[in-house]
What does this fold into?
Amino acid sequence: MATFGLIEYQDASPEVRAVYDDIMTTRKTDWINNFWKALAHDPAALKRTWEDIKQIMAPGALDALTKELIYVAVSVSNQCSYCIASHTAAAQKKGMSEEMFKELMSVVGMANETNRLVAGYQVEIDKQFQSTQP
Amino acid sequence: MATFGLIEYQDASPEVRAVYDDIMTTRKTDWINNFWKALAHDPAALKRTWEDIKQIMAPGALDALTKELIYVAVSVSNQCSYCIASHTAAAQKKGMSEEMFKELMSVVGMANETNRLVAGYQVEIDKQFQSTQP
Amino acid sequence: MATFGLIEYQDASPEVRAVYDDIMTTRKTDWINNFWKALAHDPAALKRTWEDIKQIMAPGALDALTKELIYVAVSVSNQCSYCIASHTAAAQKKGMSEEMFKELMSVVGMANETNRLVAGYQVEIDKQFQSTQP
Amino acid sequence: MATFGLIEYQDASPEVRAVYDDIMTTRKTDWINNFWKALAHDPAALKRTWEDIKQIMAPGALDALTKELIYVAVSVSNQCSYCIASHTAAAQKKGMSEEMFKELMSVVGMANETNRLVAGYQVEIDKQFQSTQP
Amino acid sequence: MATFGLIEYQDASPEVRAVYDDIMTTRKTDWINNFWKALAHDPAALKRTWEDIKQIMAPGALDALTKELIYVAVSVSNQCSYCIASHTAAAQKKGMSEEMFKELMSVVGMANETNRLVAGYQVEIDKQFQSTQP
Amino acid sequence: MATFGLIEYQDASPEVRAVYDDIMTTRKTDWINNFWKALAHDPAALKRTWEDIKQIMAPGALDALTKELIYVAVSVSNQCSYCIASHTAAAQKKGMSEEMFKELMSVVGMANETNRLVAGYQVEIDKQFQSTQP
It folds into this structure.
């Protein structure tokens, strides 16, 4: 169970409700997932985190689905079960097909493998990769 | 320096050269980066890793650039300096703009942050996220 | 379930009981938590780990609560559910308020975020930070 | 070298300069460290990250030094060299003694060790730790 | 529950069955564990991963048990519950005694501790360790 | 450079020298590597860490080389450059052949890959793996 429990909409303060409302409006849903209800015990953190995510996850040079795929990739690398479940669901909602998910997993697995091969073999950065930096 | 040093093309066995050739052909480049030269001390691992990467990174339901972005995201989460340098360069070559890179970093940073907020607040998985699973 | 199960006080060897007794005396509690009961299958590791923790967690230049907060911070970064639950409880017992916990989480989240931004942007260490080292 | 290089004050846009000025004023320093100069290529991320850090690291229920210690603890767990160097320097500036640093390291080391013992022995969360949660 | 559920033998396509059969033959068992059943939704990944594991885990310069111990060590460091459970079982089947497991855990714990002490104290690599590299 | 610099033998206090002497005697070497010289600023931590390592790394149910391989495996997973360099050298000294190292790397890479596939596919632990636990 969440450390301080979950704050439901009907029990929330006006400032927490304002964030909940914005989450539901932005995401076009009628419910709030547990992460926000757990974080709502700290209204400043709730507001800051939501506004950051809203800004960061909005489509830009990368579309919303690509951003969700990246979120899943990080969450899988970090072994965060909640985040894997929630962002896999979010990615599906934004159009991730089963095929996309499977390719995503293969890339994440491979990257985690070669990250260690590189470290283990103590490979030095090629000057060509340094020179791509201005 | 790499644990066993780097195997240059002119010093490579035929089986290693065959992999090097395929890497250069596939990537349309005329050089081999240090990772492969370090791994070439183990020709079986070189061949297996290259063939896996070639299969996994080929465009499919996800395009080649999206796959590189995911590779960078994982490498950044794992603090693998070599992999960050090499896959950032690879992503740039496949069309990653500066704007895309910056958005990528913001998503990776955010995901790493919320992964820990979720863990710290001990948030349970919503039944709605479980039910997206068949 | 723990790999080898849990060793309860009544089933414990004298050397394990001696550690259990010292844990309860030091912590002013009348029970032993599962970590120690699982580790008790290896009495040498039990004794070594407990004596290390007893020495390290004792108040010194840092007070006992600050040390618990640091323990929670590490456990959250590592996604260790058991450790988050047990050390959050320990911190509460040592005086961590809800407000302290919330600020702790915000710092841990932020640090995990900027750790990756630094890696992703490949930032070099400023000479000023090197010079703080004698 | 940083991926896009570093943006010095004299080359910065007015919005970047405004953040740099606020950093120097808040921290009572006359220079900007490389992290911000690297991030300044993304003025929105620069502003967001700085404002978050400013809010989160301000003294509250936890004092500023304790927050820096936690920042160091996370950075050490994540093997972020830059962050370890910069936040160790920041902690020293805020009053961290050599003794405090050494105790900090011992706790961080211990936590990383027991996090793995818990995982390896597959220890279940005690019901007492669950019941500390409302 | 696994993201796409588990594919049982009777529901599997011929190509998936061929991998399942090879797993059971190679491992001299009459059942397939969940990892493969979950991965079977991506037959190409199933085949590639199994063939890689089969090649990598076969006895060579390192015997099969040593390889399993290493697998457990990595899984514990990464906090992967499933992998800890499955590879601990596999190691037991290959001859890991309780004493071996306990020593393994002590080494894994210690390595995780000193990895952070090294990072935290910002220790530079001795020239002697560089010179062991050709 | 190490945070507080390195303490050379000639500058060390008697208690630090006693540990240095024991390290050199135990390891049959005539020099001390930087890790210990950096940690020597905290004589209690130096002594505790050395005695733990000496106890843990001594041959038992697992031989000394196997323990070093495990140490390398963890250090590679954690991206600890110093630890990879020092424990690779230590393993070589204890008899690790080039072939062993290469197999070790393959296992470490594979384990890091499948750890993430398991997490990403949200695979549940088979009851058979739970039942191997008494």
